[in-house]
Amino acid sequence: xxxxxxxxxxxxxxxxxxxxxxxxxxxxxxxxxxxxxxxxxxxxxxxxxxxxxxxxxxxxxxxxxxxxxxxxxxxxxxxxxxxxxxxxxxxxxxxxxxxxxxxxxxxxxxxxxxxxxxxxxxxxxxxxxxxxxxxxxxxxxxxxxxxxxxxxxxxxxxxxxxxxxxxxxxxxxxxxxxxxxxxxxxxxxxxxxxxxxxxxxxxxxxxxxxxxxxxxxxxxxxxxxxxxxxxxxxxxxxxxxxxxxxxxxxxx
Length: 252
Fold this sequence. Notes:
The structure is a single chain. 40% of the residues lie in helices and 13% in strands. By secondary structure, it is an alpha/beta fold. It folds into two domains: 7-157, Type I PLP-dependent aspartate aminotransferase-like (Major domain) (Aspartate Aminotransferase, domain 2, 3-Layer(aba) Sandwich); 165-251, Aspartate Aminotransferase, domain 1 (Alpha-Beta Complex). It has a four-stranded mixed sheet with strand order 1-2-3-4. A four-stranded antiparallel sheet has the order 5-6-8-7, with helices on one face. Helix 7 runs parallel beside helix 9 (236-251). This is Aminotransferase class I/II-fold pyridoxal phosphate-dependent enzyme. It holds the Pfam family Aminotran_1_2. InterPro entries: Aminotransferase_I/II_large, HistidinolP_aminotransfase, PyrdxlP-dep_Trfase, PyrdxlP-dep_Trfase_major, PyrdxlP-dep_Trfase_small.
């Protein structure tokens, strides 16, 4: 199956649009050639989540730029960059670069992930002036409150917290990946703050068992993936509890 962030489809249907869903490649990255083939005269928007949710994979820069050069002029690409701050590649080009260079891109970001402000529901988008004007025409009048604005601005200024979060996420991701692999699970290389894991058994059964241990993982059943889960990178203590619980369940 695809898998990607479900609201793309939901929002399109709410707006009485028609969705064309192109499955990911075997390496769990976007099939850009497949998307190009699926474009027709009625295509308006293409959603690309980079890093992708729930796989954590990213596109090679040359792939994405070539894709943007290949789309017809009536198509706009929405780059969902909710996890982009976690990409640890020097000079990796992101939505802001493509917007500055005039590509038909709207990039959207959030303060819910790296900055830890999920409860405030605050984020932002950037694009050409004409795209933003269209968005402004339909934007809800009270889409974000002053407390959320204040929190977002304070988060941007707190570089110490940002660096700490990135450093700890990188360290714990490596540790957790290695331990999960040692237990026999398949783990996809992630560029976000979660792991896409093949648990090698029916994931709902394992998920229910982990809930009894006080641990929540995200089964990927909705995408037709019976053995995969998305596992967020927690603190060192939380990650150790996950591994301890998996070892305990393995012996039952």
